Amino acid sequence: MKPMLTPAELTDALRQIGAERYHNLHPFHRLLHNGQLSREQVQAWALNRYYYQSRIPVKDSLILSRLETPELRREWRRRIVDHDGDGQTPGGIEKWIALGRGVGLDSDYIVSGKGILPATRFAVDAYVHFVRDRTLLEAVASSLTELFSPTVIGERVRGMLEHYPFITRETLAYFDKRPVQAKADSDFALQYCIDHARRPEEQDAVLNALRFKCDVLWAQLDALYFSYVEPAMTPPEAWRPGDGLEVRQ
């Protein structure tokens, strides 16, 4: 029988998945961080990434509905507030819309979902369905890409501010709180997985859930790269440079 991993071994195995598969390794992200994309390509990234951001509180609501104790629900509810806001303080979704405006897109166009690449929609919806249909342990484990995001966020903000004159710190306000939020979220999710993966097959499920989530993020960048960097063919009805631009008064 396959032996159980210790908590340290499970943590190391999860971090190794990130070292090999996290989407900061994708060529599109390297181009983005190094200032090698055009303004239009950055707009395509902001527009498509919004769809992913908009579905995060949906998937977190699905997880919240499956948690059995007030303590767990309170902890997970905080994630939803982080993205949806509380009605007074803007959340991550509102800040991402502001990011889109900052790179020149119209708010209504961003929110409409028009122009989203089919592969973006497919990958993001697959993530929501995974969280809905798989075990609660796998759903929680799929959020563990947040283990790797704080460092990448720092690289992204530095690179974009340095290389793109049309981007300001205010444009990237979404990322101000995310390293701290992601650290708190991943610490909780990691401990949950350590505590609840009590058999080798459950530990394997945790690892596979993280691999799946890395694939979801990678697939979104594949779609951007092959549609806007080296486009074999931009899909019908997908965003094209000049679409949905903010009208400057």
UniProtKB/TrEMBL annotation:
<dbReference type="InterPro" id="IPR011845">
    <property type="entry name" value="PqqC"/>
</dbReference>
<keyword id="KW-0884">PQQ biosynthesis</keyword>
<comment type="function">
    <text>Ring cyclization and eight-electron oxidation of 3a-(2-amino-2-carboxyethyl)-4,5-dioxo-4,5,6,7,8,9-hexahydroquinoline-7,9-dicarboxylic-acid to PQQ.</text>
</comment>
<dbReference type="InterPro" id="IPR016084">
    <property type="entry name" value="Haem_Oase-like_multi-hlx"/>
</dbReference>
<dbReference type="InterPro" id="IPR039068">
    <property type="entry name" value="PqqC-like"/>
</dbReference>
<dbReference type="InterPro" id="IPR004305">
    <property type="entry name" value="Thiaminase-2/PQQC"/>
</dbReference>
<feature type="domain" description="Thiaminase-2/PQQC">
    <location>
        <begin position="12"/>
        <end position="222"/>
    </location>
</feature>
<protein>
    <recommendedName>
        <fullName>Pyrroloquinoline-quinone synthase</fullName>
        <ecNumber>1.3.3.11</ecNumber>
    </recommendedName>
</protein>
<keyword id="KW-0560">Oxidoreductase</keyword>
<dbReference type="Pfam" id="PF03070">
    <property type="entry name" value="TENA_THI-4"/>
</dbReference>
<dbReference type="GO" id="GO:0033732">
    <property type="term" value="F:pyrroloquinoline-quinone synthase activity"/>
</dbReference>
<dbReference type="GO" id="GO:0018189">
    <property type="term" value="P:pyrroloquinoline quinone biosynthetic process"/>
</dbReference>
<comment type="similarity">
    <text>Belongs to the PqqC family.</text>
</comment>
<comment type="pathway">
    <text>Cofactor biosynthesis; pyrroloquinoline quinone biosynthesis.</text>
</comment>
